[in-house]
Amino acid sequence: MSSLASIKESAERREFLFLQGPPGPFFRLLANRLAERGASIRRINFSGGDRHDWTGDCVNYRGLMSRWPLFLNRILLDWGITDLVLFGDCRPVHKAAIRLAQLRGIHVHVFEEGYIRPDWMTLERDGVNGHALIVRDPEAILAMAAPLPPVPNLPTITADFKRRARDSYWHYHHVFFGKLGFPFYRTHRQGSLILDAFGWLLKFARKAGRDAQAKQTVKCIEGRDFFLFPLQLTGDYQIRAHSPFVTMATAMKYVLESFARHAPPNASLLVKEHPLDSGYLNWRRAIMAKARKLGVEGRVLHIAGGDLEALAEASLGMVCVNSTSGTLALALGKPVAVLGDAVYDVPGVTHQGGLDKFWSQPEAPDARLYDAFRRMLQAKYLVRGGLASKSGVETLVETSAERLLADPTSHATENQSPVKRRPSLSRVA
Fold this sequence. Notes:
This protein has 429 residues and is of the alpha/beta class. Strand 8, helix 12 (283-294) and strand 9 (300-303) form a beta-alpha-beta unit. The chain is built from 18 helices and 12 strands. The model is unreliable at 5-10 and 409-429 (pLDDT under 50). The protein is globular. It is 45% helix and 13% strand. The strands form 3 sheets. A 7-stranded mixed β-sheet has the order 3-2-1-4-5-6-12. It has a 3-stranded parallel β-sheet with strand order 7-8-9, sandwiched between helices. Strands 10-11 form a two-stranded parallel ribbon.
């Protein structure tokens, strides 16, 4: 039997249930592709945004969170669900769904932003990020990667910030104005949609000034020995669930305090703002205030733009909580200190000596081991494509459908490999 016929046969026995996806049409298009190949598709909406993004047959859940597990259990049984598909594993509705599906022996497929960007998205069984079962033992990684081909040199997936902004706007627009239809829905996002929108308006209004400021900062940092610290979004579950820090502001203060106490006096620290930060919090003011308090205001700089890759390449190394920016620095051969639970925090790949020692004794990655790790990631845990362009979504739909329709037992076996983990708190000292 040909591989295509095998996939078709397996698809006919599959009942996919989609829960919440990323803002935009990706989940709807993926479901359509799976249906074209013989799979049965089901969908549960939790908000007006979900309903706007789907447009096809679906069920709307309008009940209390306390009743959600029993509702889902009935759905799983009545519809004979074999596969659960969702985006992110830390949302309250998803956490309950994953556990219930596991109890029922249902395959769980979790999408998330790619561990390596911008050309890849994560697609794993049962969990992602700190919940991922990715092998982190160096010897096991080398063994798994040995039969795998080199990472192909493919064209970069196109991206358009305006598309992501448009998809997000309409999704949250319908979340806000669809409250009457979903009275008990509470978004997993932190903060206020109104305040975030106000922050983005201010950010766009100040764009010219911020761009000029970024150019000046780049000039100022030239010729200096500096470390790079890219900020993450406070609302990201990478911070909320997979780090010892309550907010990104707390992480920033921790890093600056360590830098002030232990970094060589000739070293500087460049703190880079996240490009998708709404701008509601004035990071520049907060960073400079903390630097002055610590007596290192002349050695700490802030930038709200700039080319991350160019900055990383010019740096002595990168500090991050668990950002995917770390993989970019590792690919450049730069030392990376991880403060949270990152899938790439592997002995021999990242700095293992704690942040205080990193400033004077940063450990560079083993190029052979990191290459093996990348090949393992891209072959087994990532799918090619993106959410920020039409072509990127089309590619993502095709690669994701192929992965989802493959024999699920093969991937389950892979995820039974031993995992070595350390508590997140041990990584901050």
